[in-house]
Amino acid sequence: MKALINADPSIIESLAERLKSARGRPEYQRIQCVLLRATLGSSAAEIAKVLGWATTTVHNIHSRFAREHEAIFDLKPKGGRNHQHLTPEDEAGLLAPFIGQARAGGMLQVAQVRSAYEQRVGQPVAASTIYRLLDRHGWRKVVPRPRHPKADVAAQAAFKKTAPRAAPRG
Which of 19, 126, 128, 137 has the greatest count of CB atoms below 10 A from its CB? Predict the structure, then answer.
């Protein structure tokens, strides 16, 4: 068994202190993984069984600890808008001219917002990008249209009068 982690008392003490102040389960388990190896000399397979991990994961944690030391416990938060075109403040600035129009009772047309957005970022974007933008800033569709624009009211009324009735179920 290769000694990647020394059973140095100072390392064990710093890991034990860090274990007490762990900020979540992932960090806590990583510290446990290294601490079990340093204090008990447990094998990767034993540690994996205790933590419910794959043996390869334990090997990776031990190798990274040997290279990077306690820096492996500082986990970066996941998520975020990593592929954004505009910051939320820029998006709010883009929507500002449309707020006055909406407050005056006008209809917001997504095509206008989309063309302004595309002009600002300098590239074409999908319509879903604009709908997500509007959703992020609290815009919503207030009233659905009452009828289809191409509906023929007279034809609908005539159909209601002449349509055959279905036989009652029984």
Answer: 19
- What is the maximum span of the chain, computed from C-alpha positions, in angstroms? 93
- Predicted structure pTM score: 0.46
Taking only the tens place, the pLDDT of each residue in 84-122 is 899 999 999 999 988 887 777 777 788 999 999 999 999
